[in-house]
Amino acid sequence: MQFRMFIIGILSFFTLTVNAQSDICLGNDTIVCQGESLVLESCSGLQIPGGLGSVLTNPTSVNLSDDRWSNQIPIGFNFDFYGNTYNQVVIGSNGLISFDLSHASTHNAYSFAGLTSLPDAGFDDAHNAVMVAYSDINPNSGGQILYETIGTAPNRSFYVVYVNIPMFNATDCNYMSIILHETSNTIEMHISNKTVNAGWNGGKAIQGIQNNDGSIAHITPGRNVTQWTAVNDGKLFTPVSPTNTSDYRISDVPYHLIVSGSATFEWENTNGQTFPYNNGFININNIQQGTTGYFLTVSGANCNSQVGAVSDTTFITGLTSSVAATATDDMCSAGIGSVTATATSGDAPYTFNWPGLGNATTATVNNVSSGTYTVEMTDDNGCMSTTTVTVGDTPANYPSSTTQVSCPGGSDGTATVVMDPPIGNVTYQWNDPMNQTTSTATGLQAGTYECLVTSDVGCSNTVTVTVTEVPGMDIQVINQNDVTCNSANDGIVEVNVTDGNPPYSYSWTGSASTTSLADDLYVGTTTVTITDDEGCVTSEDITLGEPDPLSFSALSQDTVICIGDSVMLFANASGGSSAYNFNWESNGNVVGNSDTIYVTPTTAFTEYCVTLTEACGSPSVTQCVNVEYPGEVDPMISPDTTGACFPVEVNFDNITNTTETIDYTVWKYSDGDTDTIGSLNSTTHTFYKGLYDVDVKLVSDRGCEYEKSYPDLIEGYPYPKPSFYINPNPVTLYEPFVDVFSQSSNDIVSYKWYAEGAKPDFSTLKDPSFEYPEEIKNHPLLLVVENSFGCVDSLTRLVRVENEVTLFAPNTFTPDANGQNDKWKVTILGVDVYNFKLEVFNRWGEKVFESHDPEGAWDGSYNNKIAPEGTYVWKIRALDFDTDQVYMFNGYVNLLK
């Protein structure tokens, strides 16, 4: 059967307006601005429309084998059932739950043998139970059992769902559920599909409820230990009232579908897009103009039939606004322009912001200079739009002209500046030596001049003009070669002269040449001076280079190495213009002739010098590197103790005094343990009985190792061994004296006896004696011993003071009323006076006297007269007043007259 259902959230219809990313609940419509984002949440979970079904979004699976009860499971609220309140149940694998928690993890009976109907006091598994379809189903063969509490107080519901479970040894399918409702205390039972398997219990099943002793049951008619089937069936069990659950009414209700377990959830929208469920959340980003609906869907399987549902829809509407702007141009950059913004769409009222104009908030802004400006408009919905507007400028041109100085160094040049077109009244101000104020300045030497042109409308500009002169001689360097080797003088410069009046004469600094070519120049600046035929003089400075002097671009640094190690020394050269030569020496001895060498110093300080030369013969350069050994390191340690009673926890301080950087320290102990500690940090080690060596190795950051041994540094002292015996032990209540004899080890120097309740209660003798109170009790006797190392140990034994039963019974008495020995009475100590019995018998076995009082006495009478003279047997039965031990005594007494 294929069908489709629709999920309903909370059916509230109202619209929200959102102006920034926020959360809304599914079912609420909202309005946002275009481009914004929001989070849509399924706040109330998923419900089938009209209350005809539910979706368990986070159920718990109960793993049960065939015919088993589950562990105790919390309902999540208090539930009244047949007058009792419960908050836990156990779930049976055969289609029922029970409030009898003693069933937890036990066998769930499947057989109805001997059971004809409910109520029944003898069938225990149906007591205190809710039975949706109590029958022999088997979750081992497929399907699953789920439970979940959903909703909020005081209207929560507890669901138990049997999903697609076959009957025992069958391939059919059963899908059914039990729902307990908070506050109302009603019970719902829903069956999607229930089959009959006649092979077990004759196919019989039970639907209903029964109280805790099997005296009351409410069973669905026709379903009381009978064969029956059900499809899409719902039953409601309603108590007399929510507070009176002594009786229930059974009614039919629409079938309530519960989708759970393998149900699949996802988000969809009205554009046909799908999105992951994401625990009921969906992020909707960059919302565009227009309306789109979003909703949740769920699909699952119910006994091989597909079921599905869809939620209410949230409609999200994206809004936008727009703005236009106009401008009035500035004049002569005087800052007198303006801009105006006008809303072209959106909802009034509107707010404006001009970020480039001091964040002005009016629609029109005056006194604006030329440029491009942005306006931001926000409408009543909070939607913002922007546009730009350009303010122009009415320009003025300032053309200029000059006349040359007729001769180099003269002062007959002129310069002219005008405003075109002229705007208002124009004034001029030159910065020449005469500060001229006319449009044209005269009598100028060659050079650059400025003129400030000002108009009374506020326009102004500073114009720069350059006055030139007739060209003099022009010198051009047509050939130039740098010095080829550092410090040599083979540099070449050749010049060519134009303009002026030839012929020319030449003079060079640093050269003997008088022509246009000099080829004996050193590095640096040389000046050639040229005089033309008219006596005009000009000169030119030419700078020649040369290869850089030889130098070391990189060189091994002074270094410290461990004794006996080798080290690589290197030199990188720069400068010069030909092949390099390296020569390494130490103490006048050559040790290498390449840019990289390896050396092994034999002294604490060795200097290695490298000399750099080149083939062309430029000046050499020498630098030296020092290689030395590190300073001697003597590993020194300081333990906080060198001996104590074991186990000895010793804190070692590393007090090594060194300028070297110690990377780590290795502590090795003769018990086989090793500690590796960073730097010169302290360490702690625990030693047991005996003498121990400590070896220390320091490893520097250079990898150098320094070792030192400390033999027999730490000693763990032994403990004494206390032992003693008590004589006698136990002692009697009437003679509570004991002697104590030490059997402790021979290394003891101190004995301390603590005898609680005794006299004395403390002693330092090796073998003391003690007297204990006359009371039945176990007294602890503590011996504390100490050896010569100060190590202490103790031993406690118990001194037992016990009861002693004593009896004195006279063997003759004379009941002759003379006041002397007229009565026979026993004296007994140590017995329970309330558990005492004395009997006296004559020679024929007749009981002539009986007493339950230890103080009772026989006056010799029997049957109200003095008994005959003779020998009488007595028996006593008594209990120890401390241990209730039974004592039996017997004897005889002579009655004389």
TrEMBL record:
Q: Which InterPro entries does the protein's record reference?
A: Ig-like_fold, PKD_dom_sf, SprB_repeat, T9SS_type_B
Top-level division of the source organism's lineage: Bacteria
* Keyword NAD belongs to the record: no
Q: Does the keyword Cell inner membrane apply?
A: no
Q: Which Pfam families match?
A: CHU_C, SprB
Kindly list the residue ranges recorded as spanning the membrane.
Answer: none
- The signal peptide stretch is 1-20
Checking SUPFAM superfamilies in the record gives: PKD domain
Write the record's keywords in alphabetical order, separated by commas.
Answer: Signal
Q: Which NCBIfam families match?
A: Bac_Flav_CTERM (TIGR04131)
This chain belongs to the protein called: PKD domain-containing protein
Source organism per entry reads Brumimicrobium salinarum
